[in-house]
Amino acid sequence: MDSKIARDWTTEAGLRAVVLRAFGTHNCGYVNVGDDHPLYRHPDSKPHPALRALWEEAQQGPIGKRGVIAIACAKPGDGGASPDAVFDVHGSLTFAGPLLGLVGDESLWWYGFDCDHLGDTLATCNEEFCVAECESLARQLAAVPRPAGAGRKPQREGERHAQDPNS
Predict the structure, then answer these.
(1) What is the pLDDT of residues 141-161, one digit of tens each?
(2) Which structural domains are found in the chain, ordered by start?
(3) Most buried residue among 20, 117, 134, 142 by CB atoms closer than 10 A?
C-alpha cells in the first residue's frame, strides 16, 4: 500500500505541515522550512550552530517526547546541537529532506517524526495527535534564531505568514 497525505495545512506558526499515512500502517508528521530558514537542507542528526542556545535551554528541562537515543548520542560541542536532540517531538525527529513524490516540489525541506515506535498505534497516534505534534514542531522551528537581517519569505507563492506583517 502506498503512503498518502492525510492532511496538508499552514500551521499557526506560519509553516506548512503535512500528516502522512505511511503504507497504511502508521502516521508521520512533517513541517516544512523555507530556503531562508537556518536549517534548510540541514540533516536531522548533524549539529548546527543556530541550535546552541535552544540546546542549552532544552537541557534545563525534562527529556520530554524526544527519543532517548537522540539525547544519548547528542554531541553538541562547538558546532551547536543536532535538530533531533533539540526539538521536543514524538520519538525525536526521524527525517529531514524532501518528501519525494508526495508534495510536488522536491526543493522543499521537511523535518519529520514517525509514529512507528514500540507501543504506537493508529488509535493512540491518530491524525489529530500528529497535527498537534506538527503544530508544536512548527513553533519550535519558527523559534530557531535567524542571522541578523534575514527575513521570512512565504513558502508558497502568494502565501503570507501571519506573524510577519512585512511579507
Answers:
(1) 999 998 765 554 444 433 433
(2) 4-45+88-142 (3.30.1460)
(3) 134
